[in-house]
Write a structure and sequence with these properties.
The protein is mainly beta. Helix content is 8%, strand content 38%. The protein is built from 2 helices and 17 strands. The chain has helices spanning 10-13, 60-73; strands spanning 17-23, 26-31, 37-41, 47-53, 80-83, 97-98, 112-113, 118-121, 131-138, 146-151, 155-167, 171-177, 189-190, 196-201, 209-210, 213-214, 219-223. A 6-stranded antiparallel beta sheet has the order 10-11-12-9-8-13, with no helix packed on it. A 5-stranded antiparallel beta sheet has the order 1-4-17-14-5, with no helix packed on it. A two-stranded antiparallel ribbon has the order 2-3. Strand 2 and strand 3 form a beta hairpin.
Length: 230
């Protein structure tokens, strides 16, 4: 049975600057007389990294939550599930609220919420696969950008669409990076609405106080590969 991993509250801290990318390592064979250079990847496809900056910590409760998360992560010794929180650039539908048939909301004034996406694997995908087939039931546009899969052992892992190889209205074959961290069965959900990844913080999570207000310093996360999630 999987343990319940904690989720880093990215959106609670409301960073104004966000960047997720694939961090790659390469070595060069040296430049030829023509000036051409051959690069070789040494990282197996890279690892996912995410950087956030310019946080809104004016609310004392949010500043205290920041301090608690910092203590929990223990300088990167503990991994967390980190949502990328960049919905604007994801091919997801808006979460439009819908009332009951008589036009009324729930007792707490909330509405029914429509799902952001509905995309699944159309066929089994092997470990380290870089091409997968998907079924598309709901998606706002083309299957591009980031998505994540909640794997059985490696838990939430982010992948970036490199290329759409084939596409119809309800299916697509896509090339992805990095390669699949774990084999996945047909029917597995691809989350294009709120991609997230198991990561650890790299460096400090500081929040100096100025005139009584906390100022969250830029933080960087890297994909955690310890595998101790079950």
């Amino acid at each position: 049975m999987l343990t319940r991993m904690k989720v880093f509250p990215t959106c609670l801290f409301a960073p104004n600057g966000t960047e997720a990318y694939i961090e790659r390592r390469t070595i060069s064979g040296g430049a030829a007389l023509s000036g051409d250079e051959t690069l070789i990847g040494t990282d197996g496809g890279g690892r996912v990294a995410a950087e956030f900056e310019d946080f809104d910590l004016d609310d004392p409760e949010i500043a205290r939550a920041w301090d608690a998360i910092d203590a929990y992560m223990d300088g990167g010794l503990r991994a967390m599930i980190v949502p990328l929180c960049d919905a604007v650039h994801q091919p997801a539908f808006n979460y439009a609220g819908t009332p009951h048939s008589d036009g009324t909301p729930f007792s707490d004034e909330t509405l029914y919420q429509t799902p952001g996406t509905a995309v699944t694997l159309a066929a089994d995908a092997a470990l380290r696969a870089t091409v997968i087939q998907i079924d598309i039931a709901a998606l706002n546009g083309n299957p591009l950008g980031w998505f994540s899969i909640d794997h059985d052992a490696w838990r939430h892992r982010c992948y970036k669409v490199a290329e759409i190889l084939e596409q119809t209205q309800t299916t697509a074959t896509i090339s992805i990076r990095p390669p699949l961290r774990e084999a996945a069965a047909a029917g597995a959900t691809l989350d294009f609405a709120s991609p997230r990844c198991v990561m650890r913080i790299e460096g400090d999570m500081r929040a100096p106080r100025t005139m009584g207000f906390a100022e969250g310093q830029p933080i960087r996360f890297v994909e955690d590969m310890t595998g101790s999630y079950a």
